[in-house]
Amino acid sequence: MNIYVLLKKTFDTEEKIVVTNGRIEDDGAEFIINPYDEYAVEEAIKQRDEHGGEVTVVTIGDEDSEKQLRTALAMGADKAVLINTEEDLEDGDAFTTTKILEAFFEDKEADLILAGNVAIDEASGQVGPRLAERLGINYVTTITSLEIDGDTAKIDKDVEGDVEKIETSLPLLVTCQQGLNEPRYPSLPGIMKAKKKPLEELEIDDLDLDEDELEPKTKTVDIFLPPEKEAGRVLEGELEDQVKELVSLLRNEAKVL
Amino acid sequence: MSEKILVIGESRDGVLRNVTFEAIAAAKKIKSDAEVVGVLCGNENLESQGQEMVYYGADRVVTVKDDKLASYTSEGYGQAVLAVIEGENPYGIVMGHTAIGKDLTPKIASKLESGLISDAVDIDVDGDEVVFTRPIYSGKAFEKKVVAEGLVFATIRPNNIPSLERDETRTGDVQEKIVEISDLRTVIKEVLRKATDGVDLSEAKVVIAGGRGVKSADGFKPLYELAEVLGGAVGASRGACDADYCDYSLQIGQTGKVVTPDLYIAVGISGAIQHLAGMSNSKVIVAINKDPEANIFNVADYGIVGDLFEIVPILTEEIKKLKA
Ligand SMILES: Cc1cc2nc3c(=O)[nH]c(=O)nc-3n(C[C@H](O)[C@H](O)[C@H](O)COP(=O)(O)OP(=O)(O)OC[C@H]3O[C@@H](n4cnc5c(N)ncnc54)[C@H](O)[C@@H]3O)c2cc1C
Ligand SMILES: Cc1cc2nc3c(=O)[nH]c(=O)nc-3n(C[C@H](O)[C@H](O)[C@H](O)COP(=O)(O)OP(=O)(O)OC[C@H]3O[C@@H](n4cnc5c(N)ncnc54)[C@H](O)[C@@H]3O)c2cc1C
Q1: Which residue from A133, A159, A161 is facing B250, i.e. has the nearest CB?
Q2: A74 in helix, strand or coil?
Q3: Which of B118, B303, B306 sits opposite A239 (nearest CB)?
Q4: Is this model's pTM higher than 0.90 or not?
Q5: Which atom of ligand 1 is the closest one to the Cα of A95?
């Protein structure tokens, strides 16, 4: 099977956000593989081990994205592709990202593409379904189980806690939800091997794209932090009195009762 | 003729979700003089649901009825909605940022090669520009976004943009559009319903959420009692779901539901960032936790440090007294 994973690097979950002049500071921030994309990498490796074939991890990013790609290779992916837009493009949105991926996949004959359900930074959750639509293939979002038999895929899809049992066919794009699997940690031999695995770097020229077609359809005009919350009031005294005080505060101060 | 904004409605068990009405209000915020056109897909009840959308402010409603639309699939709904879009040529489209909205809208935007602003919590008009505010980085920051070119297309987070008052004197056409829906390649074989009855968590005004600190399925009982006196819904952290104290349909957070109630009471929840992503926009947050260092206190307006098994029953009693 010809398997692809879409991977985005994101700020580490615990990273503090600093905004200067309407932009998020990323100097010195720790980056990780978007957690939902880790489920995608893990699932890709499992499906390959079961059905044979190859796992290619693809990211659109900058030269620093190599780190996350190497981690995915160390987990067990076979190849990686970095589409580096740093030199060519200033702005982008989900449309831009999809357009680039569409061009990349044009001649790939992918059987299965795995993406994350959402990227934890910008969190639009658009890229998976958008790409499937452009490629004209089936897609199922927020999956928690995947069984492939020939061209048929049996899937559990999480729908706000309900489980839909879905049957569809390859080629297919899925987006991965927490609960699908437990991503493995890269092993030491895995890390050693990853250094020698192929990592191809492309620019938009290589995909026969030019900047004009990639103009984003939306624009971020400002980024700001939520108003600093006044430190909450931790109540004191006898438990009974604390609860009474809480009820009175909720009624008279917060006015929610 | 005024420009049109389509509002894609969404129902559950034959009843429209509140976010549909909020989306109508959002459409009016985007362009106050626009004609708001509701869009409903399904195989029954569409006429009465359409009427309901009119009561909440839609100028008219287009329905697409087909047995292949009985349950939501991106393929089926995609065909229906795209046919309506083609017929109406709208200025904008609004839908709820729900499981269905998240699944459907990127497909449509991609087909139309348009932008899409997902998960908006606020909308302002600044001159000619419509500015959408949306949380990013798990709610640690917000961004303001505008459409640079083409369709004004957005999904809105439930419970953030108030709907208009229901008004039965409003009138408008509810008209069926015939759309040929082709055979579906993706089939839903079965749905295992977990979601509990009662108040829809993402629309509840009061949410009582339990975490691993609740310690067992039985431990959730006092939370249900509290929810009942407050007319609220019970939710949970991932920790509680993973430990099997409650069902995953109650999960709040990045992986689960995003809620914005007036009052959120976190009981025995530590306050991991993925949990906060689902509730930090709540208007008033109360934390009950025995660990004074727990991160949940950093987002709480009011906190009580102590044993939840002691505190919750007293709280229920006090509120009963108040309501009596
Ligand atoms: C040229 C360019 C410039 C950009 N400039 C900015 C900027 O200035 N500010 C800013 O905030 N953002 C910028 N972006 C990021 C862009 O806005 C988002 O990456 C894009 O909209 C995806 O949306 P999302 O992050 O919400 O991902 P989601 O749609 O939530 O992601 C879902 C899944 O799609 C896949 N995916 C998402 N992004 C990528 C990727 N880059 N590579 C591979 N797979 C991916 C992953 O599997 C992910 O889990 C830029 C992007 C490009 C291409
Ligand atoms: C990709 C990803 C996505 C995730 N998505 C989500 C999500 O959507 N939602 C979510 O909730 N989590 C999510 N998580 C998990 C999250 O990181 C935390 O593990 C989880 O929220 C912890 O749940 P908890 O607070 O109930 O448990 P714990 O962290 O174990 O906290 C239990 C708390 O209960 C308190 N306590 C114990 N006993 C008592 C008592 N008797 N009285 C009062 N207090 C008591 C303790 O002091 C403690 O603070 C996600 C994680 C990942 C990696």
Answers
A1: A161
A2: helix
A3: B306
A4: yes
A5: 21
| Residue A26 domain-assigned (yes or no) | yes
Two tokens at A153? 């895929």
List pLDDT tens digits, range B50-73: 999 999 999 999 999 999 999 999
Q: Which of B11, B93, B138, B143 to mutate to test the interface with A (most CBs of A within 10 A)?
A: B143
- A171 and A240 assigned to the same domain: no
Greater pLDDT, A71 or B203: A71
Say whether B147 and A217 touch across the interface (CB within 8 A): yes
| Dihedral Cα B5, B10, B14, B15, nearest 10 deg | -80
Report CB contact under 8 Å: B99, A142. yes
Q: Say if residue A107 is in the same domain as residue A157.
A: yes
User: Where do the domains of chain B lie, and which CATH numbers do they carry?
Assistant: 4-176 (3.40.50.620), 201-323 (3.40.50.1220)
A87 in the same domain as A48: yes
A243 and B146 in contact by Cβ < 8 A? no
Q: A70 and A152, same structural domain?
A: yes
Q: Whole-angstrom Cα distance, residue B208 to residue B261?
A: 10
> What pLDDT does B324 receive?
86
Phi, psi of A234 (to 5 degrees): -90, 120
Q: Taking residues B6-19, report their average pLDDT.
A: 94
The verdict on a CB contact (< 8 Å) between A232 and B299 is yes
Give the pLDDT confidence score for residue B197 in this predicted structure.
Answer: 63
Residue A222 lies in a domain: no
* Domain count for chain A: 2
> For residues B90 and B121, what is the distance between their CA atoms, to the nearest angstrom?
22
Q: Which domain holds residue A240?
A: 231-257
| Among chain B residues, CA nearest to A228 | B299
* 3-class DSSP state of A248: helix
